[in-house]
Amino acid sequence: MTIATERESPVLMTYSKTRGLGALLTAFMKQRRMGLNDFIQRLATSNSYACKHPEVESILNLPPPQQEAELMNANPSPPPSPSQQINLGPSSNPTAKPSDFHFLKVIGKGSFGKVLLARHRNDDQFYAVKVLQKKAILKKKEEKHIMSERNVLLKNIKHPFLVGLHYSFQTAEKLYFVLDYINGGELFYHLQRERCFLEPRARFYTAEIASALGYLHSLNIVYRDLKPENILLDSQGHIILTDFGLCKENIEPNGTTSTFCGTPEYLAPEVLHKQPYDRTVDWWCLGAVLYEMLYGLPPFYSRNTAEMYDNILNKPLQLKPNISNAAKHILEGLLQKDRTQRLGHTDDFEEIKNHVFFSPINWDDLTAKKLTPPFNPNVTGPNDLRHFDPEFTDEPVPSSVGCSPDSSLISASIKEAAEAFLGFSYAPSMDSYL
After folding, report:
1. Of 38, 100, 123, 225, which is the active-site residue?
2. Which residues are listed for ATP binding in this entry (predicted)?
3. How confident is the model at residue 144 (pLDDT cuts 50, 70, 90)?
4. Residue 225 annotated as catalytic
């Protein structure tokens, strides 16, 4: 039995119903932290009804990772031109090392490692340091995504709603991204606590997210993994988009790609159909996030995975009456199953900006951060972790995270792993700070 109908409209629930679903919603939220690859593997190895559904059988009919890698190697994409390549070589940042930092708290976790609050020992500045295990990345053949994340971070350092990379470095076993420290909390965390947002607040966040996506598209980058977990609030309450591991570079305005990736609740119909897709996949995800902010759960959601996928592919969008006509209209445009009819298909971000839903927004003031955010996290300083999930902050900081391994103890397999990430290390030129 599914509870999709009740879950689509938590705004209209009674208090007792909301309390009764609290544990269920929390479980749903935590499950979403699982990556798509892990999700697919778990689903494929289960004997659930979901696996026997014809739509899901088709979606899961993918080559195993090793075979997929072989296919990619047999039919490689043409190499990017020299102007598109970013490979600074293994010695581009030879001085940075883990012991430069005092690692204070775990503030996030992922498939390949952790994000830690760290203070630099020389200047006492606070950073979010993303520490990834090379062996885990190589085991799942995800090194291409990690290098893509690094390249995208290098390109996006100056946009107000994208997290900035200060530098990156590596040891024989780990990769380190030294990022802006953002401590207003994940949008995911605030939605989990508040269930849904009023329309003006949802509009403000959606506008800032759209601005960030439009900027990425202007660089021919498709984001592909927009969800509340990847959207942070800074200390004033502005949006900061993070986690660029699934970004696809070099997608021209009319270009397409076909990699099956994303997060199950947010997969666009064309991705589920395993058809070529373009940058409008990001506008679908923007519609899904806006819907979730207004109603409390993603559109087409069901606990039954097969039913959810079938809903995404076939069920008409249903909108409850407690939002404005402008909000309904933009949701219908963004969540258009036919990507060629989707809002943003013809003129990308310009179409989004000019929609009546955003008529209260002055876009120049928005990108200049002159608009007052609808919610202030009220953090007292870098040590204020009230908006981070205790699931993370209660976890002890691993002692190994700040240590460089003894070179005499490094195994041959680790040395081989190091070669997979040539060019990862990065130190900005002084011009970057001017």
Report:
1. 225
2. 139
3. confident
4. yes
